[in-house]
Amino acid sequence: MVGTVAVTGATTPASAGEQPAERTGELPILDAEAAALAAAATETYVGETTARDDWQRAQDRALARAHEQAAERRAAAEEAAERRARQQAAAEAAAAEEAAAAAEQVQTLATATAEAPAPATGGSGSGSAIVDFVRAQLGDAYSMGSTGPGAWDCSGLVQAAYASVGIDLPRTSGEQSVRGTQVSLDALHP
Prior knowledge:
Elements: H1 32-115, H2 125-136, E1 141-142, E2 151-152, H3 154-163, H4 173-177
Parallel strand pairs: 1-2
């Protein structure tokens, strides 16, 4: 509110002839320019304060979002690590199970071999002698191109088995298959 206030005061005259004087004092009147400046300053202050508050809220939101994202990344990394650990454990369990099955199979074969009846020896003809020769090589290593003793390939073992009964065969399986008398499948018997 802009206005003028008059202040009056009575004084006691020093002499009877003096008239009391009134004194008035005025407060300064704000002109339109000063009022506009004051309003502009207030607006500027409010604007700056609002801008600072908005900026602070934006900073707070950005900081909160950064914390959320970091927590999400940590959780995702932990989940991935747990998933890898579960997969590793499953792979190790599968490998252990496979190894146990293989060991069991080896044990079964070893038991079956140990319990198998001894091959019949002294059968008729050279067929039994060839089979006996081959059985005697059980446990020898396989090595491509080997002709024994101690390591064989398929053709080398066949060649040596037949040689043990005096039959000369060529070295390779292709040549061995066409040597001798051809027998039909219907004519075969144990």
